[in-house]
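REQUEST FORM: STRUCTURE PREDICTION
Request ID: SP-0412
Submitted by: Lab K.M.
Chain count: 1
Length (residues): 190
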Amino acid sequence: MTSISGVKIGVLAVQGNFREHAATLRRLGADVVEVRKPEQLEGLDGLVVPGGESTTFMRLMRLYGLDEALRSFGAPVFGTCAGMIVLDRRHLGLIDLEVDRNAYGRQVASFEADLRLAGEAEPLRGVFVRAPRVRDVGEGVEVLADRDGEPVLLREGRFLVASFHPELTEDTRVHELFLEVVRKEMNVRA
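STATUS: Completed
RESULT:
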């Protein structure tokens, strides 16, 4: 487990699984800020957009001005489940993906699966709750994990997205990967 101290990570806290992400990031040594207003993005080294309900997220983000603030936010962003949807082409347009909502089925069709993670021998447990499915991947997007050949963890530059909920397991590798993106971006900016 990699620890990263002195790094300030925001977790969008208007709705969804923000508490679980915050707890995981704190366990890894990050300073965590719950973000509810645009001005709270200032000074952050990264931001997590958690799972929840994407329509509600977009409505609340527009209401509080967080949609435009997020579009101009220059640090790394990690979106899970609804967070992946919010970042896609049809919503904020920050990552070159097209995502279908609830593509694996309703709440009762939620499931867990072992995922193949690029460069790792040990599988990653993915928790899929009304999960989105990636319909189209842009040229510059790298697939980091898949389930039965379908991409479920992807990266484009400073953006990392997952269709599953890594915050609902004890495995911190996905959050560590995000913190590594943050660390590299901080070195570039320094």
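NOTES: The chain is about 25% helix and 30% strand.
Reviewed by: T.R.
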